[in-house]
Amino acid sequence: MRFQVLGNFEVLSDTRAQTPSAPKLRRALALLILRHNEVVPTKALIDELWGSRPPDKAIRAVHTYIYELRRGLTRPGSGGEPFLQTRPSGYTVRVPESAIDLNSFRVLVKEGREALAAGDPGHARELLNRALGLWQGSALANVDCGELLEAHATELEESRLRALEIRVEADFQLSRHQELTGELKALAAARPLHEGIHAKLMLALYRSGRRGEALKVFHDLRRHLVEELGLEPGPELQRLQRSMLAGDPSLDPPAAAPPPPPSRAQPPAPPAQLPRDTVGFTGRQAVLDEAGGLLAAHGGGTGLPVVSLVGMPGVGKTATAIHLAHAVRARYPDGQLYIPLGGSQPTPATAAEGMEHILRGIGVAPRDIPTTLGGRMALFRTWSSDRRVLLVLDDADSPQQVEPLLPGGTGCAVLITGRSLLYGLRGARTVALSCLSTAEGGQLLTRLIGRERTDAEPEAVADVVRLADGLPLAITFLGERLMALRPVSISCVLAKIRSAKGQHRLSELSALGLDLYDRLDGCFRKLDGDAQEAFLRLALMPRRLFTAGQGARVLGTDTTTADVLLMRLVDASLVEVAGERAAGRRHYRFRELVREYALERMAVPRTAPAVRRFTGF
What we know:
alpha/beta; five-stranded parallel sheet; three-stranded antiparallel sheet
């Protein structure tokens, strides 16, 4: 969805307008949008909707309005975090910054102001005209504003005027005096007491050879000020009038600057955006060989190699991808691009934002970046059609986010990381990352704390890997803690950890400062209701390995439905496939950290929730 506040307040989706028709719903949503990504107290909504005389059941009415907004604006099957969230003291709307025209306006004005300060009035004028072009009338024109929204609308109009003044200054520096006079006359008529606008109009007329008209503007303004306010024009305006009367040469247009000498600048260097590699990267050789082979498989073909590394939070997807990217970077002399997509965050990057990141990385000036996603895609695919470039798309959210970012050249390659499989991404090959074995985890710990300590306590090393459940992030975290406590033995540190928090590994790691709960919660929140309930119920099974048939009995459904639900949990990296033990008997398992997360999420004794039969896919 997109939101417009610079003119009529509008809510737009890809297919239709969804602006609430009820006046109070429109007012409530307008306030939430203007204060997006922050908590708007319930009291503020009441003040806006009813002022100093709220009804007796104002809070209940606000709850009803929020319900109506959720029902009208939530898209079916959108999943993930809700658009309009309830907080202890109020409500918050979570939307990308780019979804609101006001934020685009502010970005363009900031860039225009910086361009003008840097001595580029032409670019500044272009940016500021784009910013002012976003306005479709007075701010919130179709909203019956209360006190809070009225203050917002006034501030918006002031920011519009400031942007216009900066653009006028850019026009002055470009000697566009004659073109400005008509616009400035209209502005002066709309704001008959604004001295700054009248000063610009006087100067534009004077530099256009119309000194008499310029002095008449001063005379008319002085008359208005004296008659309405009993005031004389300010000192600056009076100095300008005296300078015009005296024909001061300083008021003449500046002489045109000589053309710059021909540039002999070197072509820009290829982008090299890869984050630094992990020193002494350990393990994952099978994954590196498989993924590296897939990247090289299409070396002379017509297809674009796309490899997706998938695994649970903390399994080392990003570190593995970066290590592999550094290992193969020589194959891609035209550049390596790294784009963080924020798929695990409440508000992932949009495809348009990802494409803007890419275009900036290859050296496209901000003013030359197309405003539409289609235009950005065409520009990048044309640029990359005959180049060899490696893209690393980190923390991807969905195929719809990734597909537009793919380059056009078959000599390029794409390496993606994400927590879920990207079904529907054409040509993508998936490589799953699992947790480390005890031996691999021991090698990682040895790299972190030194072979002398790990050789001295091999059993304690295995206990550390088991405490971390083979998760590289947790092993690395524990290794850093062991390094900080270097004089103390590994077994002694483990004993202190366990004596403080008992036997629940998730809690033990959280007490040390590594909160895996939120990371796993991000995977859980992306599931639909059936998959969430299935996940929680299956986590109560005492078996370490189980089949779809055994899971079906727990879920109260048939084996086929249970198998589909389990594969959805596998796709979300919350359940692992442990292999085929017999024909048609695929075995599944929970990592212990994931199981403990499920039990903590239920926050009840280890008994199953009320049985509900699963009937659909």
